[in-house]
């Protein structure tokens, strides 16, 4: 069985010691995405959950696209919020506006204590080629 | 590869913008289950971790059954608790009473900050047809 | 489809009501690993994130080895920290020293509120035979 560890050209390295994605037998796991600017990764994160959700999803879309995938390939998604009660509804509004209804993956959303670089949101997903 | 997004008749919509389950090639991912009453989803959640664990597992069983699956199909489970230290043992007692020993999936249990609708517990799973 | 629930000889039972690993069709899910001493599971956990990360990864390696697997089989990993801000960099240093760069799985790391037995860290993974 071949396990392909994707380190994508044109992307900054993962914040963690990890490839951008790992693929086996058509299943593609993505490393957690957060709202950094992929073209200027050291700049401060955008302010507010709406902007952070949008950037996180755009980053995820860009990773998927670089792998020849798109929203239609999504199977499951996890969403992590550091201010769940305050941000849950606003995150969902952006999420539902960006991911078409007929592509939506299963989802679990957790309120967590802390995320990389103090982000308000992180998301990871499993897709299927 | 066909990705089937299950929106189950007779169930209230997911609390999040997501189908109830997504299936590919025999693998079935479930959206996070929490202790709402599936037949009266807007009523308050039951009180206490024992009741909430039981309702959450009964809801999961009902989703699995609607998909033609059961406990024997479970592969992995994640349990999220908002009062881990207080509730961990009582949750485990209910969990072990409901899921037969020879069906149990892998498990990770996390203490989290907040869950949808202020639930004490949420669980998601991956099953295999 | 055969689902194999691995309860490994020579290992203490999982802290939770779960097998050590569940395998289907070459996919192997591991129950969450934490920094107990597998040969003396009731002794106190080691002090500090560096030691706890190392023991957790050594325990995971031992489970993988008992299944005939190794780091090269890793697909995805989740890391849970109870003191994210304090421990993230030190955890990553140990992680990157133990898991060779060409074997690294996708990763998501979350700051959580509480873990089993008050551990500073827990990790779970999905591997492919």
Structure description:
Three copies of one chain form a homotrimer. A six-stranded mixed beta sheet of chain A has the order 1-2-3-6-4-5. The mean pLDDT of chain A is 97. In chain A, helix 1 packs across helix 2 (84-98). In chain A, 50% of the residues are buried. Chain A has helices at 49-66, 84-98, and strands at 3-6, 21-24, 27-30, 74-81, 106-111, 121-128. Chain A contains two helices and six strands, in the order E-E-E-H-E-H-E-E. With 129 residues, chain A is α+β, with helices and mostly antiparallel strands. Chain A is globular. The interface between A and C is medium-sized, with 30 and 32 residues.
Please describe the topology of this protein.
Three copies of one chain form a homotrimer.
Chain A: E1 3-6, E2 21-24, E3 27-30, H1 49-66, E4 74-81, H2 84-98, E5 106-111, E6 121-128
Parallel strand pairs in A: 4-5
Antiparallel strand pairs in A: 1-2, 2-3, 3-6, 4-6
Helix pairs in contact in A: 1-2
Question: Which terms summarize this structure?
Answer:
homotrimer; 129 residues; 2 helices
């Amino acid at each position: 069985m071949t396990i392909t560890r994707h380190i994508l050209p044109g992307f900054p390295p993962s914040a963690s010691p990890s490839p951008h994605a790992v693929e086996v037998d058509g299943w593609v796991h993505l490393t957690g995405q957060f709202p950094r600017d992929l073209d200027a990764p050291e700049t401060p994160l955008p302010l507010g959950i709406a902007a952070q959700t949008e950037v996180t999803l755009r980053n995820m879309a860009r990773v998927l696209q670089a792998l020849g995938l798109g929203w239609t390939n999504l199977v499951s998604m996890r969403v992590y919020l550091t201010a769940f009660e305050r941000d849950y509804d606003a995150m969902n509004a952006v999420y539902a506006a960006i991911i078409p209804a007929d592509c939506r993956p299963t989802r679990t959303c957790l309120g967590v204590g802390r995320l990389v670089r103090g982000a308000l949101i992180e998301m990871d997903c499993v897709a299927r080629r």
